Each structure stands twice: as C-alpha cells, then as structure tokens.
Amino acid sequence: MSDGPTDDTTLSERWLTVPDLVDLLGVTPGRIHRLFEQRTLLPARVDGVLRVPSEFLDGAEPLPELRGTLIVLGDNGFSDDEAVRWMLSEEPALGTSPIAALRAGRKAEVRRVAQSLL
Questions:
Q1: How confident is the model at residue 9 (pLDDT cuts 50, 70, 90)?
Q2: Which positions fall inside the Rv2175c C-terminal domain (predicted)?
C-alpha cells in the first residue's frame, strides 16, 4: 500500500470532480460528500483535487456493489487513496482489476480477496 495520493491518472478512463458528480447525479455537493462519508463512492486525491473514477458509477448512479467492498478495504486499514488505487489496479488473484470484476458480477470473489489483504 502506498502512502501518497493517487497520482497515476491512467488508472481510470475518466476522473470526475465533485462538480462533475453534482451535474451527473443531479444532487448537491453536500450529498456527494455524504456519499463519500458513507463509502457509497470513494474519492482519491488526483493532482491535488478530490476525484472519483468514472468506473465507480453505473450510469448516473454509484455502482451498488461498490460500497461493501470499500467498507472491507477501510476496515483493513486502507486509506481512501489506497482503496481507489487497489480497485483500479490489476489484482492477480482476480485476473483483472477489482472494479472490472465487480462490474462483471463477481462481488463475493472481490470481497473475499479484499478481506484477505492485510
């Protein structure tokens, strides 16, 4: 696990700022921050700005399967930046990135791998 912010902007196809999320989800900035606090969405600091990978969304909604996995990672001591980086990076135990596996319906497998990380 790295200590610094997520600085590899190539990990996501598109990074969304809070104003982007406000426009896309049609909610207030306060609601976006509550989604962060609830771990329904998780931002990372990219170039000094809080951003969310577009892969964390399913259309104009947070990916429903994401929250439980983010909670597991937080419980295992991952910072927000570390959790975002792990979700987007290739995970050998899954053969793909955790977010791609979640999107493919492999929620239980992703969470099992996340729980094994210490």
A1: low
A2: 65-117
Long-range contacts of 12-19 (CB under 8 A, 24+ apart): 12/53, 12/54, 12/55, 12/88, 13/53, 13/54, 13/55, 14/53, 14/54, 15/46, 15/51, 15/52, 15/53, 15/54, 16/51, 16/52, 16/53, 16/54, 16/57, 17/49, 17/50, 17/51, 18/43, 18/50
- Do 68 and 107 form a contact (C-beta atoms < 8 A)? yes
More confident residue, 5 or 116: 116
DSSP reduced 3-state for 93: coil
Q: In percent, how much of the chain has pLDDT > 70?
A: 91
Q: Looking at the chain, how many residues does it have?
A: 118
Amino acid at 74: G
Specify the DSSP element, H or E, that contains 62: strand 61-62
**Dist CA 117 CA 91 (whole Å):** 11
* Rounded Cα gap, residues 98 and 4, in angstroms: 20
22-to-16, 45, 60 alpha-carbon distances in Å: 10, 17, 10
